[in-house]
Amino acid sequence: MCQTNLNGLLGTRAAKVVRRISIFSVLASAVIVASPLLDGGALFAQEEGIAVGSVAPNAALQLLDGRPVELNQFLGKKPVVMEFWATWCPVCKGLQPRIDAAIKKYGTQVTFITIAVSVNQTPARVAAWHKANPIATEMVYDANGKATGAYDPPATSYLVVVNKAGKVVYTGLGADQDVDGAIKKAMM
User: Which terminal residue of the chain, N or C, has fewer Cβ atoms less than 10 Å from its own Cβ?
Assistant: First the structure.
């Protein structure tokens, strides 16, 4: 019945073209959906970011006053919560209450580091923002992208939680992360 309607409305040649386009669209959609599975990955799996279980790599950073600092200075002593962050990131602002609650709960048992990415912000801009909006984390600037390169964050608001042994126990993205649960994993 559809063929008759298409043939009648469009003519035989046009109806064949429409059918071929429809078949092509279905096949193309199937390939797009199946391609992550054919590649050995899971559908919609996050393939970016450092792998849980990895040893947390070192990275050269700088304090907001420009002095150099190594990420290793914070690692290997107690659990560490790192957030890849930006002044312009609304999701980071949404995550901040969870970070603040964790700081209040764990205090000095955990090191909290905010890694300001060097995308559309300067150390001066980050320092001005931090002065106007003080947060109780160690604020560092990833001037040369070394931490970004080492941890491969898919976006800002990316958390990496590292245990005392220096192993990554959690990675996550977004404002609704279970920061407390991630820290509990790091303290085991």
Answer: N
